[in-house]
Write a sequence for this structure.
């Protein structure tokens, strides 16, 4: 993972942020992600990017392909940088913020899995990514497959899994009534368009039955 010291910028370099266009990538055979770019002034903006994964270039892109491949590995002038604010499991999940939701992300023969590359993710793959980064040997396996790597829990704390059946979300912060899952709590998950941190009340999941799990040790 890169730090700012890894990049060959000069004080007056302009920065162009490469941003995915969020749309329904579910059940798309090609799963090719569309990108656009915007000029974001000088390099100082690199210190102020939000938590998550960002792509940028020091020159105005001439053309951005629709691709399932990692842009920062197929184009020499595009770089990927990741910001997090937490350590441990939640910190690793933060790495995927801003990544498009694709159902389902795939393994790319020459590069690796799209989620490991921080190119695309879905709900279960986001939750799994954090444990893989911590060294747990769990494959990317979707909402049904993930269950055998977890156990039910009644303890409400950061990092537990809310399994809605079709959707897997992770409790990011218990903001409402302490030790109760309610609409004020923050989730970190990939759902519909992208990976994000969002209050439960702002999703269409708040009236959906769920089971709470924790990862097996």
């Amino acid at each position: 993972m890169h730090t700012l010291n890894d990049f060959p910028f000069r004080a007056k370099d302009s920065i162009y942020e490469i941003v995915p266009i969020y749309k329904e990538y579910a059940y798309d055979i090609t799963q090719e992600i569309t990108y656009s770019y915007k000029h974001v002034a000088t390099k100082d903006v690199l210190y102020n990017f939000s938590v998550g994964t960002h792509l940028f270039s020091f020159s105005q892109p001439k053309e951005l392909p629709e691709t399932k491949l990692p842009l920062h590995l197929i184009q020499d002038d595009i770089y990927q940088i990741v910001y997090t604010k937490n350590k441990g499991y939640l910190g690793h999940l933060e790495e995927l913020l801003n990544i498009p939701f694709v159902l389902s992300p795939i393994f790319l023969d020459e590069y690796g899995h799209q989620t490991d590359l921080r190119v695309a993710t879905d709900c279960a793959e986001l939750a799994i990514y954090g444990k893989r980064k911590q060294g747990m040997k769990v494959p990317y396996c979707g909402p049904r497959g993930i269950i055998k790597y977890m156990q039910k829990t009644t303890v409400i704390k950061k990092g537990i899994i809310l399994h809605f059946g079709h959707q897997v979300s992770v409790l990011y912060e218990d903001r409402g009534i302490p030790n109760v899952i309610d609409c004020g709590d923050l989730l970190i998950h990939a759902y519909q368009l992208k990976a994000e941190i969002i209050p439960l009340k702002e999703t269409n999941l708040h009236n959906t039955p769920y089971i709470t799990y924790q990862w097996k040790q």
Observations:
- The longest strand covers residues 35-42.
